[in-house]
User: Which sequence fits this backbone?
């Protein structure tokens, strides 16, 4: 009997796996997927700048366009389809109610420059979400405009720098642990700070003694992720905060892992001065294949006057937007504007829909379940896999490639084999503090049955690796839409766009 | 709680498997004095109907543009988005995927990003484009930083017609590094000779066309002047549909083009999320910020795509990265890509002609009103008019009549009295003849 | 006495007269994996020992090269720009990065000889 690998097809399709070319190669010049009215017949006022050269866009009908993108979509793994345990990314369920609410014309069809009395409901929504974030974090203020987590970091560090400059002491150094996200040092550099690294201790936490040695009047801030990127709570965090404040520096917390502690711990109680929240992680706004995100930043009292513009403030019975620096409105100290208009409104609506659905009790339960799920994976894999640091962990479990030593199987190979088992790989090779990191974050969205199936597959693969079947791993994935892609070729001779001549050559 | 799968029995079984008694044993690392023992004092969980009612009530306290005769622009434009776009971007496989770090199971995202990059490069007339940025204003700030890296010079000149949000975003981005911004004053009545300002210290000159006031600029001489002095020409486009009617910035000699892509495929959303477009010349590609998708092959020899040149990015380069940016605007880029695929060459050009034609007609109507002056000689779908009284008041007066008349320039320049009587008016294919008649009649009454 | 020296950053310099030819070591190229890009200094550039002078990138990593000694760059290996894989094939030969006219020969004393470098690598692998 013929196996799947021996069957070839005339079309290039393989059953439901439909091959699809680039949209530019489907072109029929003159065809159009929209019906438009005639343009008014008036002399143009384009000042002699009317386009003469063709753009080069392909012409397609609506059914062709739909088919094209539906076929493409089927080559993607998605949280809606299966477990997506990417550590530090929080791939949780994205409720469809969020999408429905964001599309209400009263939110989606608002222009950012409408008179404020015509957008009171929108400002109320931003204000309500801000109140929830303030209460959940125990911090007195929040800047809503940052467009993503890294943008929130930028916002946080700029706020800190502005506050220090206002005291006439900008300082030089930002301390960052070796386990930090790459965005942390990149952000500090843009704020004109030099980075000094703090080592981790043998328990995967900040080495507090080493930190204290580095603290001093040169230090502007520390940037710390908590729970940290090893999935562990920094249990000496209060001591760290006191030491940081003792030298007049600020404590920036990367809130990427807030999903572990909603309603369990308030960052404000830990001595944190400033923290961004990723609405696209913790509050279920969709990742969308890489954005858009949203990264509000909660701020301590001392930093609030330096927050970015614009801000939503109460004005008599209503709400208004402060878009300029103003002594009267308390924004004179603002460090400036980060982006156009007022923030990621579409993401705010989704996040608030998620928050209202969960409520105070549900958010707390979600964090508890996220932590429970990660510890369940940790407990069920730790005899076979190499656990990097002893548990309990928070919302993600970190293993390394120690158990693969001498098997000829790398973390990358192992990850690719997981694809054939029907799971998205965990985060690989991050954090950098352990060798061949495997960072697994199941989130609260997974049922016990789903976790049991995942654990069984992981154990199966682990045993197969230990049995020395490295060739199998080196070739994986076998069952994905594509086999391994050649990243070296892509980087050595970058082809970053389709070119018309490529089409002619193919014909 | 409908989003949480565990039953109490599941939780007990899992705690037992872990070997702990209760959930707080897993929070043992949290200092006990800060561990909360009860939910915060906030509303408890709620069903779909309750949440929907609350949010719909908030939405109801707004005046959507579609419920009014609306003429607002200034960097955000109401265009018709075909139904197919919103359907496709809500497919689970696009909506609920992460950044395509595992290319074997992310070809859907990577494939459209490659198409998107190609579309943006074509529209702007440039060699290459990235996989998108947060929005036009933040892309503009990134362009200034890139010019700083390429030229190793420390000054940018921003033209007076640059959208104030773009200017402010650029000023914010460089305020803590050794870099100077020379932001020229805004003057809707005159043009400054920008070429004369460029010197040997200039990293780039940033010019918007159509500019904030709607005026179009021929950039060829300016490009030449910049290049003569070793500076880059950064061109900003806030209404990307205009590129269907206008000579592209690339043809006029731009080195970097940044644009707001919201107009194609994306709703207004009260200002975000939007879509930053970023394109440049091939020779500068390694200095470009943001994600890039590139073509390659898989082991079976099939053409496929991967994220590439990622050594420019923060997760590898850390403090030496070209930018701290991590996410792009993936789903907004997909909406753009689908809408532009539906439009195609003929559709986009036709759409641009409709926008322009409607604006020409509206400008003529407005110019016929007593005391109203259209300032622009040239424009695409937006222009500036001088009214006989403060524009903000006129806009307020028209709200009760169901008309959003435009953006009063005093909103963007509150400290500049010369802007008080100026109104920025935009029109697109979504405006009907009835909208125009309503605006003209209402202005006749209140002016 | 051999005329090849090594740095802690896994670079080598082969000294002939007052000219040093520099590159990355076999160990470094193995650690980086497939080299996809190099950025080379322009001839004529004056450098001080330990200045950043070049960049080497693989798919997943980027590293700076530091000037092993002070001097003037007299030539770069432009063939690497088109074919960076040469570094993988022959790191200590055809895969050289740049040549430098050494201005302070005594700085060579700060560098390692082959035996010391081999010991360093043995400790790291």
Assistant:
């Amino acid at each position: 009997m013929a196996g799947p690998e021996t069957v070839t097809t005339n079309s290039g399709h393989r059953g439901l796996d439909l091959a699809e070319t680039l949209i530019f190669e489907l072109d029929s010049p003159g065809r159009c997927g929209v019906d438009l009215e005639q343009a008014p017949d008036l002399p143009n006022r384009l000042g002699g700048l009317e386009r003469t050269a063709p753009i080069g866009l392909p012409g397609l009908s609506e059914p062709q366009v739909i088919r094209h993108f539906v076929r493409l979509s089927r080559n993607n793994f998605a949280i809606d389809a299966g477990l997506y345990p990417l550590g530090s990314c929080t791939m949780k369920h994205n409720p469809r109610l969020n999408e429905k609410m964001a599309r209400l014309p009263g939110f989606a069809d608002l222009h950012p420059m409408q008179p404020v009395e015509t957008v009171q409901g929108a400002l109320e929504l931003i204000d309500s979400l801000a109140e929830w974030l303030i209460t959940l974090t125990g911090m007195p203020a929040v800047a809503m405009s940052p467009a993503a987590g890294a943008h929130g970091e930028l916002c946080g560090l700029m706020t800190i720098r502005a506050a220090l400059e206002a005291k006439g002491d900008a300082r030089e150094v930002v301390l960052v642990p070796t386990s930090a996200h790459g965005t942390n040092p990149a952000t500090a550099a843009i704020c004109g700070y030099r980075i000094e690294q703090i080592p981790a201790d043998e328990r995967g936490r900040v080495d507090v003694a080493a930190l204290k040695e580095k603290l001093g009047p040169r230090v502007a801030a520390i940037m710390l992720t908590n729970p940290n990127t090893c999935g562990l709570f920094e249990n000496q965090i209060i001591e760290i905060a006191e030491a940081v404040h003792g030298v007049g520096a600020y404590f920036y917390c990367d809130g990427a892992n807030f999903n572990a502690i909603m309603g369990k711990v308030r960052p404000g109680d830990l001595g944190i001065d400033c923290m961004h929240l990723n609405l696209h992680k913790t509050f279920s706004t969709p990742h969308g294949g890489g954005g858009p995100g949203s990264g509000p930043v909660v701020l301590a009292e001392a930093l609030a006057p330096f927050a970015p513009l614009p801000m939503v403030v109460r004005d008599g019975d209503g709400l208004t937007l402060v878009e300029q620096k103003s002594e009267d409105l308390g924004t004179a100290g603002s460090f400036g504007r980060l982006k156009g208009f007022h923030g990621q409104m579409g993401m705010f609506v989704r996040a608030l829909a998620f928050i209202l659905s969960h409520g105070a009790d549900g958010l707390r339960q979600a964090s508890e379940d996220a932590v429970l799920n990660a510890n369940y994976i940790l407990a069920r894999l730790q005899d076979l896999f190499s656990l990097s640091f002893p548990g309990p962990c928070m919302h993600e479990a970190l293993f390394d490639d120690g158990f693969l030593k001498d098997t000829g199987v790398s973390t990358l190979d192992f990850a690719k084999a997981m694809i054939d088992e029907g799971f998205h790989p965990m985060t690989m090779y991050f954090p950098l503090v352990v060798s061949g990191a495997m960072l697994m974050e199941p989130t609260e969205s997974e049922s016990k049955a789903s976790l049991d199936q995942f654990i069984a597959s992981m154990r199966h693969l682990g045993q197969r690796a230990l049995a020395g079947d490295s060739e199998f791993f080196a070739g994986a994935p076998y069952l994905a839409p594509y086999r391994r892609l050649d990243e070296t070729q892509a980087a050595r001779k970058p082809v970053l766009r389709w070119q018309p001549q490529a089409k002619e050559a193919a014909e | 709680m409908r989003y949480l799968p565990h039953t109490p029995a599941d939780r007990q079984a899992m705690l037992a498997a872990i070997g702990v008694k209760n959930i707080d044993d897993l929070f043992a690392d949290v200092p006990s004095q800060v561990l909360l023992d009860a939910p915060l004092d906030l509303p408890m969980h709620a069903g779909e109907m309750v949440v929907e009612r609350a949010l719909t009530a908030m939405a109801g306290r707004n005046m959507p543009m579609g419920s009014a005769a609306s003429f607002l622009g200034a960097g955000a434009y109401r265009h018709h988005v075909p139904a197919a776009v919103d359907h496709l971007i809500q497919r689970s496989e696009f909506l609920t995927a992460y950044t395509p770090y595992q290319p074997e199971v992310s070809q859907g995202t990577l494939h459209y990003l490659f198409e998107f990059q190609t579309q943006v490069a074509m529209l702007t007339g440039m060699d290459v484009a990235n996989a998108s940025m947060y929005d036009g204003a933040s892309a503009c700030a990134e362009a200034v930083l890139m010019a700083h890296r390429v030229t190793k010079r420390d000054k940018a000149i921003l033209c007076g017609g640059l959208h104030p949000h773009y200017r402010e975003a650029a000023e914010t981005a460089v305020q803590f590094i050794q870099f100077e911004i020379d932001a020229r004053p805004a003057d809707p009545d005159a043009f400054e000779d920008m070429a004369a300002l460029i010197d040997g210290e200039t990293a780039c000159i940033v010019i918007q066309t159509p500019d904030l006031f709607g005026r179009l600029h021929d950039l060829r001489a300016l490009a030449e002047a910049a290049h003569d002095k070793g500076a880059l020409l950064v061109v900003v486009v806030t209404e990307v549909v205009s590129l269907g009617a206008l000579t592209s910035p690339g043809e006029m000699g731009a080195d970097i083009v940044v644009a707001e892509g919201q107009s194609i495929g994306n709703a207004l959303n009260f200002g975000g999320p939007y879509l930053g477009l970023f394109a440049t010349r091939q020779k500068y590609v390694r200095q470009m910020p943001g994600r890039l998708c590139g073509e390659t092959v898989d082991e079976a020899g099939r053409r496929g795509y991967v994220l590439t040149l990622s050594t420019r990015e923060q997760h590898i380069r850390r403090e030496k990265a070209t930018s701290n940016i991590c996410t792009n605007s993936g789903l907004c880029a997909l909406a753009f890509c689908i809408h532009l695929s539906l439009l195609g060459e003929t559709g986009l050009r036709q759409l641009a002609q409709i926008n322009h034609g409607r604006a020409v007609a509206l400008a003529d109507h407005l110019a016929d009103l007593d005391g109203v002056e259209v300032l622009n000689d040239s424009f695409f779908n937006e222009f500036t008019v001088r009214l006989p009284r403060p524009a903000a008041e006129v806009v307020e007066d028209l709200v009760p009549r169901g008309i959003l008349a435009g953006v009063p320039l005093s909103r963007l320049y509150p400290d500049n009295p010369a802007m008080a009587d100026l109104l920025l008016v935009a029109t697109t294919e979504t405006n009907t003849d009835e909208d125009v008649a309503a605006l003209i009649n209402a202005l006749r009454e209140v002016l | 006495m051999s005329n090849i020296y090594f740095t802690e950053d896994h670079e080598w310099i082969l000294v002939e007269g007052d000219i040093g030819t520099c590159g990355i070591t076999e160990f470094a190229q193995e650690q980086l994996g497939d080299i996809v890009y190099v950025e080379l200094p322009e001839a004529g550039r004056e450098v001080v020992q330990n200045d950043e002078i070049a960049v080497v990138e693989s798919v997943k990593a980027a590293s700076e090269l530091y000037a092993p000694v002070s001097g003037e760059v007299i030539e770069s290996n432009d063939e690497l720009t088109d074919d960076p894989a040469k570094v993988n094939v022959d790191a200590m030969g055809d895969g050289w990065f740049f040549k430098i006219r050494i201005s302070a020969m005594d700085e060579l004393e700060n560098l390692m000889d082959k035996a010391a470098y081999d010991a360093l690598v043995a400790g790291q692998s």
